[in-house]
Amino acid sequence: MKLMLLIILRNERVKVSVIICTLDKRQILPETIPSIKISPLVDELIIVEGLKPIGYSRNVGWRKTRNQIICFIDDDEVIPEGWIERLAKEFNCPQIGAVWSTLKPLNNNKINKVECILQNHTLKKFKLQARFVKKQALEDIGGYEHTIGGETVYAARKMIQYGWKIKIVDYPFLHKMHDNMYAWILNIYGTGKIRAHELREHRELLSYFKKALGSFPRGFQLSILYKEPLIFAFYPLRCWLYLTGAIYGNTKTGKT
After folding, report:
1. Packing angle, helices 110-126 and 181-194, rounded to 10
2. CATH number for the domain formed by residue range(s) 2-175
3. What is the pLDDT of residue 82?
């Protein structure tokens, strides 16, 4: 395990700790750390390297922070100038436990454009994301689950149960996504596969099956809503790829 702590000296009062969880520091985009350092609110940057699952890595990181506001940035993300300041404002409301924003693709092809529409739609609808958080809220829920993925969504759910509120801000950050259709297919199928056991533990596999069954009319609705015809085919394919991966993963691990 490697834990690197970088302190950034600022004249302003300490406000935000930023954490990057990565399996290898070489995977961090060259633009990521400079985009973090430019914020006057950041005085602490922690890089947690070589730990998995991701929930465990996040827990190691936030428990080392000295600030009450914590932001997790992944190694394939870049934040625009003013992003941290904009989201941090929301914590002026004492009931806010977590804040997050919409996203844009760094590699802006047609596949990623549609994928972002769907991800942002889900994010705005359900408001379940806990990556820019109050430390007290994480302490209340006992931190993140030690899962392969989805740990920030489950954390947001638990925060709501404890009386915290989640806020989504339409101030997008940049995320490195898929280079082509083949990479997208592998990613969606693979995500379902590696999260198979987790979905079973949370009894969510049946809900994803129902979602896949209704994906064709839902895809049509979304294509009209966002004036993007490609969603009509893209959304059902996404649902069924994810579900197939989840079923296959359960079968392989004996969790049927």
Report:
1. 40
2. 3.90.550.10
3. 95
